[in-house]
Design a protein that fits this description.
The structure is a homodimer. By secondary structure, chain A is an alpha+beta fold. The first copy, chain A, has helices at about 25-35, 40-50, 50-60, 80-90, 105-115, 155-165, 185-215, 220-230, 265, 405-410, 425-430, 450-455, 465-480, and strands at about 70-75, 95-100, 120-125, 135-140, 165-170, 175-185, 235-240, 250-255, 270-275, 280-300, 300-310, 325-335, 340-350, 355-365, 380, 385-395. Chains A, B: Its EC number is 2.1.1.319.
Chain lengths: ~475, ~475
């Protein structure tokens, strides 16, 4: 609830809207929690600066203009209107660009500046309320949240599809897949330390509150510990993983056909998966989760050229979505050939349907037959290690997050920024919150501080390299003068 | 909307509650925006660690036990229950502790752990809805937000007073005063730079979006600039000012008698004030705003010992409220004896009644008769400099702010932390958002980067100090051997 939110809470009518899987959604609350974020040009710019995202949609449209030429198109959640404009540039007869926030006004200005006002009609309103004059041939939307389903925006796309897509219509994107893979990362150590130090701090606090102010607060130690543990260790983290951090094959846990999926199909994700460890003597620090979407058209009317947008760990093609990291604390020792049999489930938070609660359980079948038991794990009788850990999926995309959360995005900053419009580190880190800092984790165990030291090279520090040279010169001079007889 | 907010949106009934000065307040929205923050023990702890705040209330209660002994007390917004417990310890017959969030449950546990469950009754509910079995002798509440009125929580105290305080009852605190004073600060330069660099970034972005993706976004340059200017330069900043940064006498702009003030008295604050500059050849960089509250009892039943809680700039007694800084950009050159005639007005934001919009205007009457005109200012014919600048008061107390905003609290961190339970820098800065980092600005013109360099001293860097020594040794050796005849 920082200052950036001032003045954009908007519709506080308090009318209830939609179902979103059981819980009634208060529109005013939803705006305060969610939509207001997208009303800022700053956030639009961050998304528009994601080259991987932009290239995928750009190619999807312009390599498949047959889907757009002379057609009616609906852009759901148009933002600044870029997809609507591309659709028009690709030859659409008419484009309806629906945007819930006041960003619609800016989209209208951009449409006009690009001289497409006769083709693109920007409509400010929520998709669920909008009435179009015709059915459309294409629905295009960039609806994907962190780990695909966060934000639950696909609900609005489904609503649009069921009401406004012709029976022969095409979805852009057409398919989506969610992935998980076992990973190693230094984030868990760091978060464990943060948790420990917050508890040390609490102990001091309760001691002092008792001694100075005569009130015993120690009864709150347990709930405080739970609150902090949930925050530090049981909340998934945004991260841009390096492919080397993935230590076993990625497993698909959900496939969505955008043409046929219903809201009930995506309310909950449940999957069993297994993965064989591909690295010798390493640590299972948790799981990474990400997604792909594909632009394939539809069976009867396929894409001329299929395009894929992947948010998998990548050295050069990171996205603002990054990956979600689900920490296992403490990590488990594993090695090549060990088999990880996992199960995953995720459902919407009861309190906020745009947030998710996820749960992993993982069974480690060690090839060696030997067990290196991490704490907090249960054993069964077949030398099988049971690890159960549950998380809340965190970090709304492009939302100004809590400052506490923003720390995560500073952790492993590297110069491998892929931002179209590159921003200086300080500015980006401070200004973007959950936004694309495109951090690539270089070193498994490196902490923020270490990386800071590795990367920092203040001018003066280079001077130390002169010391051996000077010492050598010094020695040389001494050597010359110590042999005067030879001169 | 960071992860910390998960699962505490709470009551989404959408019923409208109260007036709050014209705009109807949606309860669900208010909870999502406001109350949920106070449901975290972490935030309670931060407030309870503010020694100045704690000492003031502690002394107010225990140096005036005659107000509490055998009396009925109401604690409005009880949080973890500390004021209710002190009231009971001071001899109250009965204490009603009303708390709107689930923190009430924790308060109940603390009350029981301190064996006061027969005296303190914790009631979970909003003050406006609660029904008490009797009228009370004392209302105690820590209702003050940033710059006193932010959060608009005093409305609930007024409601409690009008419904539940006996005609002879006493308010704790009894009085409040708001202050402003001209200041110098390096924050404005820093924010100007941030703004400039965000605009440079935007230019690159629009160029590249046009060149790579064929869409001209430059029509949004003006609204983007306005958005960024509002964010960087027209939003007040949390800061813990050093008294040396205050360059003229502080002026009182609002006095509130808590026993008689009505909501309409605090809906708007308007004041003219003047201040004479007390420092030679300096810059007017803006105004600082803060508040005091006093515990004086009431005329017919005064305090035995009056206590004051001030949040004025202080070297050793900073509070988590800090001061609000209203930047003037660019600053104006002023000097000792110049007279600043200002006017101030502040009203609640239409979109969120708990946020404020403030406006300053300031006329500089220079003693010298000479004018050093800052940009953007208008002149009148009497060699008077008109400076008009308006702001939105920012930063909800103890709220997890946007990461962008949190930067402000990292700027001038010094070791002068007054936190009862001291927290390591990284942890506090990352975890607290708007919370007490107790930064004291050491250097007027030092930017974040400069301070970083001043404070950083990585081991290797010290080695450069050896270079002159080695060079000197080298020279000495050369000198010795260049005079062989004298040996």
């Amino acid at each position: 609830m920082g200052s950036y939110k001032n003045g954009v809470v908007g519709d506080q009518s308090g009318t209830s809207n939609g179902d979103a899987g059981g819980a009634a959604v208060d529109k005013g609350v939803d705006f305060a929690n969610y939509f207001c974020t997208y009303a800022f040009l700053y956030h639009q710019k961050e998304m528009l600066s994601d080259r991987v995202r932009m290239d995928a949609y750009y190619n999807a449209v312009f390599k498949n203009t047959h889907h757009f030429h002379g057609k009616a198109v609906l852009d759901v959640g148009a933002g600044s209107g870029i997809l609507a404009i591309w659709s028009a540039q690709a030859g659409a007869r008419k484009v309806y660009a629906v945007e819930a926030t006041s960003m619609a006004e800016h989209a209208r200005a951009v449409v006009k500046a690009n001289n497409l006002q006769d083709v693109v009609e920007v409509i400010e309103g929520s998709m669920e309320d909008v009435v179009l004059p015709e059915k459309v041939d294409v629905i295009i939307s960039e609806w994907m949240g962190y780990f695909l389903l966060r934000e639950s925006m696909f609900d609005s796309v489904i609503c649009a599809r069921d009401r406004w897509l012709k029976p022969t219509g095409v979805m852009y994107p057409s398919h989506a897949t969610m992935w998980v893979a076992p990973i190693r990362t230094g984030l868990g150590d760091q978060k464990s330390n943060d948790y420990e130090s917050s508890m040390d701090d609490w102990e001091r606090f309760t001691d002092e509150t008792k001694n100075y102010y005569g009130v015993d607060m120690s009864v709150l130690t347990k709930p405080f510990s739970q609150e902090q543990k949930k925050y530090y260790l049981q909340t998934s983290l945004w991260n841009n993983l390096h492919p080397h951090q993935v230590i076993g094959a990625a497993a698909s846990i959900k496939e969505i056909d955008c043409l046929t999926a219903s809201v009930s199909d995506i309310l909950e994700v449940k999957s069993n998966f297994s993965s064989t460890v591909t690295l010798q003597n390493t640590r299972l620090c948790g799981y990474g989760g990400w997604f792909d979407v594909q632009f394939r058209g539809r069976k009867e009317d396929p894409a001329q050229e299929e395009v894929e947008l992947t948010t998998a760990p990548s050295v050069n093609d990171g996205t603002h979505w990054g990956q979600q990291v689900f920490l296992l604390s403490p990590p488990a020792r594993i090695t090549e050939g060990d088999q990880l049999n996992g199960s995953f489930s995720m459902k919407r938070s009861k309190e906020n349907h745009r947030l998710m609660e996820a749960e992993f359980s993982c069974e480690i079948r060690q090839q060696s037959g030997e067990l290196v038991p991490p704490k907090l794990c249960q054993f069964d009788e077949n030398q099988v290690l049971m690890v159960t850990f549950s998380f809340a999926v965190s970090h709304q995309r492009t939302s100004p997050s809590s400052a506490q959360a923003s720390e995560e995005f500073l952790v492993n900053f590297s110069p491998a920024s892929l931002s179209l419009a590159s921003t200086p580190l300080l500015n980006t880190a401070a200004a973007s919150g959950d936004l694309p800092v495109y951090s690539i984790e270089n070193s498994d165990h490196a902490t923020k501080k270490e990386i800071g030291l590795l990367h920092s090279s203040p001018g003066g520090e280079n001077a130390i390299h002169l010391i051996p040279v000077i010492l050598f010169l010094c020695g040389f001079v001494l050597w010359i003068f110590s042999h005067p007889t030879k001169l």
